[in-house]
Amino acid sequence: MTAYPVLEIIAELKEKLGKDPVVILQAPPGAGKSTILPLQLMDEPWLKEKKIIMLEPRRLAAKSVAERMSDIVGEKPGDRIGYRIRFETKVGARTRIEVVTEGILTRMIQHDNSLEHAGLLIFDEFHERSLNADLALALSLQLQQVLRDDLRLLIMSATLDGEQLSRVLNGAPIIASKGKQYPVEIRYSDGEGNASVRVAQAIQKALRDESGDILAFLPGAGEIRRTHTLLEELANVSIHPLFGDLPFRQQQEAILPGRDGRRKVVLATAIAETSLTIEGIGVVVDSGLARVPRFDPRSGLTRLETIRVTKDAADQRAGRAGRLGPGKCYRLWSESAHSALVAQRKPEIQEADLASLILELAAWGVKALTDLTWVTVPPAGAAAQATELLRQLDAIDGQGITTRGRRMLELPTHPRIAHLLLEASDVQEKALAADIAALLEERDPLVKETGADLGLRIEALRKWRRRENVYADTVILERIERLAGQWRRILSCPQDNTMPPDALVGKLLAAAYPERIARQQEKHSERYKLANGRVVKLPPHDPLMRETWICAAQLDAGAGEGKIFLAAAMVEKDLLELAREQRIVRWDEARGGVVGSLEKRVGSLLLETKPLPQIPEAERTKVICAAIREQGSRMLGWKEVQETWQARVLSLKAWRPDEEWPDVREERLLQTLEDWLSPYLATVTRQSDLERLEWSNILTGLIPWNLQQRLDTLVPVKLQVPSGSMIRIQYFSDGRSPVIEVRLQEMFGLAETPSVNDGRIKVLIHLLSPGYKPVQVTQDLRSFWETTYHEVRKELRMRYPRHHWPEDPWTAQAVRGAKKRSS
Fold first, then answer.
1. Which of 181, 226, 234, 657 stands 20 to 30 A from 778 (CA)?
2. Are the CB atoms for 814 and 749 separated by under 8 Å?
3. Per residue in 756-777, pLDDT tens?
4. How far apart are CA 807 and CA 603, in angstroms?
5. Can you tell me the distance from the alpha carbon of 155 to that of 13, in angstroms, rounded to the nearest whole number?
6. What pTM did the predictor assign?
């Protein structure tokens, strides 16, 4: 045991954990932090004989680490060292160390808020920044601060930025272990092409040129299978796939040393980056690719995306070649491309579906995300999306988590699947729900060309269980059946191999994906509109196109219209049970009136509508006011007389600020419609009714009684000029000088400029020619007659010779029409 580098810092670590609530340990792969360190801490006095709970980000790592520690102390898992993973537990009365996956710790905290049986929580491989790890740490920190000041937290990582993490965690001390890492020679290989082909070629080269076993990293199970096929002709080489969906026995075969003396090639996903020690590896071949989930808050969908690895992940992968001695790493990208890689992977919490996290927080009693200490705060958009989904699933309401929500948390799965399982009522439905849940959680057993119908997958699974021939991937069907069996045990129901009605499949599927219930846009069309408003498409010529209603379980976000990969038919009877009845009263612009209906909808999809025979006055008035507010005063049918009245009142408000002239600007009137207009809307149902209202009386009522009589005196609508004509005065809402436009000949003999507002505001006169063309603008009529008129007269005599243009405008008679010049 002295060979493990972590032992060099164990004394310092014990000291820090004895006095500090949170400690950060940085140690490279191979240092012994996952297996040796917990054993060294098991009997520390500050533990007070309480358990150590260690979190591992993956099930394979959790089980393997527990088995390795048990082997070191000469015991079997379930004695002093045990583990808990999904659907499998091996712990006993003597267990002192429990290795668990992150979701398990969250469950333990929810069941025992003080976690009294635990003295130390270890977060292993925290640099992977899984969603569950971030949540578990946030809950543990609050638990520690509120209930358990004696609880210790140890955060372990190989590549995490310890300084940044320490700042978030109130200056938690950092301990570094150098580890035992041999040099690894990096060989870059520029080029493009199929990842499986390039990895296979690099493996063949490494088998020729290097010694030792080979670990190759590929993005997913599909690429691993293709690479395996390309290499299966190799002699004296054993090839082992390694990814999360494999049975544990096959995973162990990939990890343990070969027994037949042949060289071993392990084809792995990112599962092999950390925690697991794969015996005998001397060479790493890295495709430079990883497959990660990406959540789109706009669509509510998660899709798998193949991306370039980050620099820290590439370093982790390369380090696997240097655990036993000097190694080699073949990177299938150029050195210049490496320098352009992103430094660190993004925390999953920034890009994941947050439904499970939000439900856990609701159960914990968290009202706002800021109530907890987060290493990375969950994005607000994704949190809002998750909250809305949980409301649709009846998991939360305005008061917090519901009874249904707590039952959903008891099931080790996503809230969608949990809701589906709980919706099943009788034995037949429960057996079907178990099959559907397993099919949704595992890979598709049928080829892509089969079509999108989930019913075909259920048929294949049940035929396979009856030992009938099926055209499907039996390895995947085996995994699906194992999972379905787990759900049947939980639901206490037997296996059912009869064929269920298509409608029942769709009904249960809708319990998981209520916002993905969809209606066909046109008969036999591949385009469907989802309840959330988006439009998606079935594959061309898919048999499901004969169905008007479907529920889509798997689809992509798509740039415009998403594609449906898995769905089931639905019938309208079941939809009516899901529909929410809404009483809709609105303004119909096309009809120009208030209309009311009783609608049954699933999200944005209309199932049924009936007209309302009567609409109460208060409701109708509210709708009319809202419509006027949206469309503006044009909807009221106001004409020039009403607009002039507004300008007159607003002019007085500007000119006489000490008096109580009201604010009758359009925006103000629209804001206060309910106060001044609603009393007159009792019989109004259509826009034509609005236009017939007695607007002069209504508007006059806005002015205080003591000012009403003065309006026409202070701001008359028209002004009589010397010719006897009544000329309309134009007023302005901002209090500018009012304007009249009048022909010059009608003003002869008038010396003083007309005024309004008790003579305080002079009118701006636009003097016009006989042809109504502008001649002069003035607010000083006397000055115009004395100075400018004579120049204007010369021009007008030439342009209008039939008109009389007297030399003396003071004594000349004002005329409306033409008056011939004296000969």
1. 657
2. yes
3. 999 999 999 999 999 999 999 9
4. 81
5. 12
6. 0.74
User: Cα–Cα distance between 457 and 332 in angstroms, integer?
Assistant: 38
CA–CA separation, 488 vs 425, rounded Å?
13
> How long is the chain?
823
Those residues with Cβ within 8 angstroms of residue 792's Cβ, 6 or more apart along the chain or in another chain: 744, 775, 776
Inform me whether the pLDDT recorded for 823 exceeds 50.
no
pLDDT of residue 352: 86
Sequence letter at residue 179: G
For 200-215, how does the pLDDT look when each residue is reduced to its tens digit (9 = 90+)? Answer: 999 999 999 998 899 9
Angle at 719 between CA 716 and CA 725, to 5 degrees: 145
Q: What pLDDT does 559 receive?
A: 60
Residues 6+ apart with CB under 8 A from 24: 154, 155, 156, 157, 160, 162, 165, 166, 169, 172, 173, 174, 175
- Residue 396 backbone dihedrals phi, psi, to 5 degrees: -135, 160
| Mean pLDDT of all residues in 312-321 | 87
Q: Which helix (H) or strand (E) is 184 found in, with range?
A: strand 184-188
| 247: its two tokens | 């049975």
Beta bridge partners of 510: none
Write down the residue that tokens 């990939």 correspond to: 254
- The distance from CA 343 to its chain's CA centroid, rounded to whole angstroms, is 26
Gap between the terminal Cα atoms of the chain: 133
Give the orientation angle of helix 415-423 with respect to helix 502-512, to 10 degrees.
Answer: 140
Q: Which residue has the tokens 């305005």?
A: 398
Average pLDDT estimate for 263-282: 80
Task: Please state at what angle helix 454-465 crosses helix 427-441, rounded to 10 degrees.
Answer: 110
CA 572, 577, 581 angle in degrees (round to 5)? 100
Q: Which amino acid is at 164?
A: Q
Which pLDDT tens digit goes with each residue over 609-661? 999 988 999 999 999 999 999 998 888 888 889 999 999 999 999 999 999 99
CA 416 to chain CA centroid, Å, is: 16
Please say whether the beta carbons of 158 and 127 come within 8 A: yes
Pairing of strands 761-762, 755-756: antiparallel
Residue 599 in tokens: 């609608």
CA dihedral sign, ordered 186, 192, 196, 200: negative
Torsion of CA 175, 177, 178, 184, to 10 degrees: -110
Mean pLDDT of the chain: 90
Please give the structure tokens belonging to residue 475.
């390895």
What is the separation of C-alpha 747 from the centre of its chain, rounded to a whole number of angstroms?
71
Q: What is the pLDDT of residue 819?
A: 61
**Which has the closest alpha carbon to 270: 103, 123, 58?**
58
Query: Which burial class, exposed, middle or buried, applies to 517 when counting CB atoms under 10 A from its CB (0-12, 13-18, 19+)?
Result: buried
Report which DSSP code applies to 272. Answer: G
Least confident piece of the model among 187-196, 265-274, 527-536? 265-274
**What is the 8-class DSSP label of residue 637?**
T
- Give the sign of the dihedral formed by CA 662, CA 666, CA 671, CA 672: positive
Residue 477 tokens read as: 């069907």
Q: State whether residue 179 is helix, strand or coil.
A: coil
Specify the pLDDT at position 590: 87
Residue among 627, 616, 604 nearest 519 (CA): 604
Please state, in angstroms and rounded to a whole number, the distance separating the CA atoms of residues 780 and 750.
11
Burial of 573 (0-12, 13-18, 19+ CB in 10 A): exposed
Residue % of the chain over a pLDDT of 70: 96
Place of tokens 């115009």: 784
CA distance 87 to 433: 17
Q: Residue 568: which of 578, 555, 558 has the closest Cα? A: 555
In 10 A of CB 802, how many CB atoms? Answer: 9
Burial 705-729 (b: 16+ CB within 10 A, else e): eebeeebeebbbeebebbbeeebeb
| CA dist 23 → 9, 15, 122, 240 (Å) | 13, 10, 10, 38
Give dist(CA 496, CA 465) in Å, integer: 9
